Predict the structure.
Amino acid sequence: MRSLVVAALSCLAVAACSRSDDVEIKAAGVATPPPTLAGVDLSQPVRALGTEPFWSLELNGTDMIYTSPEPGELRAPQPAAVVQGTVAMFEAAATDGQPMKVTLTATECSDGMSDRTYPLTAIVELGERTLTGCAASTAAIMSAGESGPVDAPAQPAG
């Protein structure tokens, strides 16, 4: 009987100590920082792209929008990122009903066709198809040169 009481008290102690940091932060009224992966703010627009076949996928905060020359455009509502360590996942059903899953991994990536390097590797699953490519913030991709790292643009001093 005594061991049962000790076990029950141990469980209660562990449960009391395992409150998540998010609960404590929210209780204190402190804003939770946006999720980031390899320095990429996932609360801002992110673009993944690949070659052979050419495709792109935009995460704009509201939608996940896949485009390619062949099947056209697919859209799905963008869920919140599920970040675990160096991986972030977004999963939803596209407007045509097929599953759309985007996995971003914090590993440097080369698209194989340019001299650019990206901070994230992307895997996009559309139904039975799996595409691999690279990803970065949309702002970084739009401001990057033809070669070198695709990094977030410098913020003006203010």
